[in-house]
Amino acid sequence: MFNPRPFGWVSQYLSGYFFAYGVYLPFWALWFEGQGVSAADVGMLMGIGFATRCVANLVITPRIYRVESLLPALRWITFASSLFVAAHLLVEPNFTMLATVTILFNLSFGPMIPLSDSMANHYVNRGMLDYGRARLWGSIAFIVGSSAVGYIASLFGANAIVYTALAGFILAMLLSMRNPNPMPVSEQTTAQPRPKIISLLRDPSVIRFLVLISLIQGSHAAYYGFSSIYWKEAGYPESTIGYLWSLGVVSEVLLFAFSKRWFTGMSLRTLFIISSIGVVVRWGLTASTTEVAGLVMIQLLHGVTFAIAHIAAIQYIQKSDASKMVALQSLYNALPLGAFIAFMTAVSGWGYQLWGANVFWGMAVMGIVALFIRLDEPKSKITNINTATSLESN
Predict the structure, then answer these.
(1) Is 389 a residue whose pLDDT tops 50?
(2) DSSP per residue over 335-353, as a string?
(3) Which pLDDT score is estimated for 235?
(4) What is the spatial distance between Cα 216 and Cα 283, in angstroms, rounded to a whole number?
(5) How far apart are alpha carbons 305 and 283 in whole angstroms?
(6) Where are the transmembrane segments (predicted)?
């Protein structure tokens, strides 16, 4: 228990992290609203969070390059995340103070997943860990967190959202204090060179990839920032909203579980087309209805709009030259899943304040544009989809 095997350490740490993330992602906008923050400022604050995580993953994360540094780094950033979550309860609820704690929190929060994934990959490469099985516990914890906090907040009010997230981070921090057996030790005496990001940004095929995945994943910005507010305004309690978010993650997990059976032999172009069509249908439905049957369909489509696009993106990265893989992974997490969603979240806040649910039609248009972008994809077909097993982790 106090010196767990790699599977126990990684799966339990991810459970604490994703429990907290299952609270943060669906309900933080509701907490901001409960502090009297306007919809436009909620969008700005959520966008600042995404942008800060982007900067952290481009600047801070790559500097922790030795495997021996991963465990101390995870302990410190988990401790810092716990402190800065708690700080939300202590500051004055004005935009400047909320923006300050948002930046501090996301600077520490942003690197948690790439660093814990790096730790997992260290053990995977040594045959000590099945990443998919370990990662599954994080998915389950996300569902538990998003379901539980909705019920708790409906009983005790908006501040219960912060307290519940804090409980998840404290759990992750306590679990991180244990030493896995064996400890992560690098087999190399010198650090690997840092990936050359700038050179990739001059490659037209990489730019098309980043634009395409940005359109698909960026279309989720209004959903991340305002779906909970939208559904609450339609009369649904926090508990129901939590169940709806959990349903979306269940859809994603099931799609990952069966993706090898369903998608082997499909080209990346086909996967991106399926996901783009899903974007058009999902956000068009979101703008059109708040009926229960419609909401269930909308959330079941999360596997199509997020997971299939993620599968295709990971496969694109894996099929690129080995020298480009690390840099592409960094760009994927920092730009489409970070900076662009940050920008679109801010835009969505402005749009939601002006047009309400009609802002989701703008998200649907992004799927239409994505249909017309063609990648210079590898000729080989997808053969190992099961490697793409991660939730929204940016």
Answers:
(1) no
(2) IIIIIHHHHHHHHHHHHHH
(3) 92
(4) 11
(5) 10
(6) 12-31, 43-61, 73-91, 97-115, 136-154, 160-177, 206-226, 241-258, 270-286, 292-314, 326-346, 352-373
